[in-house]
Specification:
This protein has 208 residues and is of the alpha/beta class. The chain is 36% helix and 19% strand. Strands 1-2-7-6-3-5-4 form a seven-stranded mixed beta sheet, with helices on both faces. A hairpin with a 3-residue loop joins strand 1 and strand 2. Helix 1 runs antiparallel to helix 6 and helix 5 (144-161) packs across helix 6. It is globular, with a radius of gyration of 17 Å. The protein starts with 11 loop residues before the first helix and ends with a strand.
């Protein structure tokens, strides 16, 4: 049977948590060089940490965003794309090794579904490529609806893996070129994660 979609819950508990998340954001942006952690004790215990740091140096599992072709070539995605940094940092700059790790042929023709996750491992470390942006002649494009779908699919996947800690970048703020503010993207991620956690813990620790 197909996995059930995570509902977006509107309840006093959810509203209270939303206010808490907003306060967390205010505190973080008022002190941007510090690490902020907020602990929730609802149906299960879990923590959210917002910090500035190195995604690829994290001891957690990691999520890396990609377009819906799972493009990995530097001349396609650019030098600053997370996929390029992933190839450089984890795969010795070998895009071929990264392609083998995610198990997709090259070249790729068919668009993958929004929110499709492609697991990979390297030297005992785990990660997931999250396919989100639609390639266009003007560059990769995404929408609020795409972000909602991608988050729901990501949380479902991570819950099934039973991973205890995951590091996720602010999705949509870089390579996807969403026409959205960083603050708005971060708020959307926090609310989506909290909504998912009300139906069952996704991970014990989320690092952003």
């Amino acid at each position: 049977a197909a996995a059930a979609k995570i509902p977006h819950i509107a309840s006093p508990l959810f509203i209270l948590a939303s206010v808490s998340l907003l306060i967390l954001l205010v505190v973080y942006y008022s002190r941007p060089k510090r690490r902020i952690t907020y602990s929730f004790r609802e149906l299960s215990a879990w923590n959210i940490t917002i910090k500035r740091g190195d995604l690829f140096g994290s001891e957690s599992g990691i999520v890396v965003t990609a377009d819906r072709l799972a493009s990995t070539a530097r001349d396609v995605v650019g030098d600053d794309a997370l996929v390029t940094l992933l190839a450089d940092r984890w795969f010795g700059s070998s895009v071929g090794d990264l392609d083998i790790a995610i198990g997709l042929p090259d070249p790729r023709v068919d668009l993958l579904p929004v929110g499709k996750t492609l697991p990979f491992t390297r030297s005992g470390r785990r990660g997931w490529l999250l396919c989100l942006a639609e390639p266009t002649d003007q560059g990769p494009r995404t929408t609020w609806q795409d972000l909602h779908i991608a988050y729901d699919e990501l949380w479902i996947t991570l819950r099934k893996t039973n991973i205890s800690r995951i590091a996720v970048p602010v999705i949509g703020s870089g390579y996807a070129r969403a026409q959205l503010s960083l603050e708005g993207l971060l708020h959307l991620m926090l609310l989506s994660y909290h909504s998912a956690s009300l139906t069952g813990r996704v991970t014990a620790d989320l690092e952003i």
